[in-house]
Amino acid sequence: MSESCSNSGVSRRSVLLAAAGAAPLLALTGGEAQAKLAMTAVKYQPDPKDGKQCDGCNFFVAPNSCKMVDGDIAPTGWCLLWVKKPAT
Ligand code: SF4
Predict the structure, then answer these.
(1) Which of 9, 15, 73, 88 is least crowded, fewest Cβ atoms below 10 Å from its Cβ?
(2) How many helices (H) and strands (E) does the chain have?
(3) Is the CB of 39 inside a 6 Å radius of any atom of ligand 1?
C-alpha cells in the first residue's frame, strides 16, 4: 500500500514538473501565436492599387504595421487582403 502511494507521489511530481516546464511555452503560444503572412504571399506592394491603400484598410495599424501581414507596412501600400476600413 505504501509503495503505491510512493509511486503515486513520484508520478504527481513528474506531472507537476512537466506542467511547470510547459507553462512558458503555453505563454509564448498564447497571445502572439498567430503568425502573420509574408508580404510576398499576399503580393504586398509599397504603392497604392486602384485607389486602394493600406491606411484605408481595416487591417492597417498606424503608423506602419498590419494585423495580417508581417513587416514594415507603408500607409500607401497595398496587398491582396485589402478590406475597406469601416466608416467611423
Ligand atoms: S492592404 Fe491591408 S492587409 Fe494588406 S498590407 Fe495593407 S493594411 Fe495589411
Answers:
(1) 88
(2) 1, 2
(3) no
